[in-house]
Amino acid sequence: MLVPRPHGVNEAAGARTISAVVAIDRYLAHLELERRVSPHTLDAYALDLGKLAAFAAGIEMAVERLERAHLERFVRGLMAEGRSPRSVGRLVASVRGFYRFMSAGAAENPAVDLQAPRAWKALPKFLTVDEVDALVAGPDLSTPRGLRDRALLELLYATGLRVSELLALTPAHLDLEGGVLTTLGKGRKERMVPFGDEAADRIRRYLAEGRTALLGRRTSPRLFVNARGGSLSRMGFWKILKAYGLQAGIGRAISPHVLRHSFATHLLERGADLRAIQMMLGHADLSTTQIYTHVLDERLRSVYERFHPRP
Questions:
Q1: b or e along 13-26 (b: 16 or more beta carbons within 10 Å of the residue's beta carbon)?
Q2: Any idea which residues carry the catalytic annotation?
């Protein structure tokens, strides 16, 4: 994987950039061949370190000669561009790993304690129950696609699955009589998630009428297939969801994760146990699930200020 040379640099800076590209490519090769990181992670490292190479070229220094002050200036510049602390934090982690690799056996590492900005905890975005009802009512049930889309939306809201988990399902993963499915989550950890009668009924009809029509004479191991009988992609589902969100009059961005957040928030509002929600969502740590309690805190405060005679 090659890091592209930035445009608009002079000849001397260009030579230093080429040197930076060589150094970064060595590190990426190490990650790919020895650390065996995923292609997605490798792309993220290449993008992050490409920004570092561009910064080094801009101040006409070799990337391996940058000092701590330069790296802090680099991080401040990223923040000044309006990037989120989470995005800059990921980039700082890439830079630390790069210099750790570069300085192996050497005395100095300019990034050894380089600090990322503290990320704020954004409250998860979720839909109201009425908005969910309008969303799932959108598909045209007289068509195979509509039957598929209704089953997709019902099952996602009923289970809170990650979109990758949802699209990886096969018919064998679902026990429609028992109202439970089995999925592989992060770290390939298997978990069982219950779902209700409405989702089960929609899936039964999709399997009987919609899926067979979409497949035609083709076969697929996946539960949800596209119009050509192939596996439905993440981008394909995102487009489907966006279209139904507009149709339902939901005036803000909607994604599969918004339905996952809605699932957890609505369960918690109705008194579900936080640890049970953790298990259904597949969170390794309860602290990850606890962000939904902040949603309730915000709503309680809003209700208080709206209705209490002396707010």
A1: beebbebbbebbee
A2: 162, 186, 257, 260, 283, 292
What's the gap between Cα 158 and its chain centre?
Answer: 19
Ordered alpha helix ranges (H), the chain: 11-30, 39-58, 68-80, 85-102, 129-136, 144-159, 163-167, 197-205, 211-215, 234-247, 256-269, 274-281, 286-289, 291-307
The pLDDT value recorded for residue 124 is: 77
What separation in angstroms does the CA of 7 have from each of 11, 14, 70?
Answer: 11, 9, 21
114 Cβ contact partners less than 8 Å away, ≥ 6 residues apart: 68, 71, 72, 75, 92, 95, 96
Q: How far apart, in whole angstroms, are the C-alpha atoms of residue 255 and residue 53?
A: 34
Q: What is the DSSP string of 112-177?
A: TTPPPPPPP-PPPP---HHHHHHHHT-S-TTSHHHHHHHHHHHHHHHH---HHHHHT--GGGEETT
pLDDT tens-digit series, residues 30-52? 888 888 888 888 888 899 899 99
Residue 13 has pLDDT above 50, yes or no: no
277 and 146 in contact (C-beta within 8 Å)?
no
Question: At residue 18, does pLDDT exceed 70?
Answer: no
pLDDT tens column, 112-137: 878 776 655 566 789 999 999 999 99
In angstroms, rounded to a whole number, what is the distance separating the alpha carbons of residues 39 and 100? 21
- Quick: pLDDT tens for 40-98: 888 888 998 999 989 988 888 888 888 888 898 888 888 777 777 778 888 888 899 89
Indicate the length of the chain as a whole number.
311
Contacting residues for 58 by C-beta, under 8 A, at least 6 apart: 6, 9, 13
Identify which of 178, 229, 233 has the alpha carbon closest to the alpha carbon of residue 203: 178
| pLDDT confidence bin for 222, thresholds 50/70/90 | very high
Which pTM does this prediction carry? 0.61
- Give the pLDDT score at 118: 62
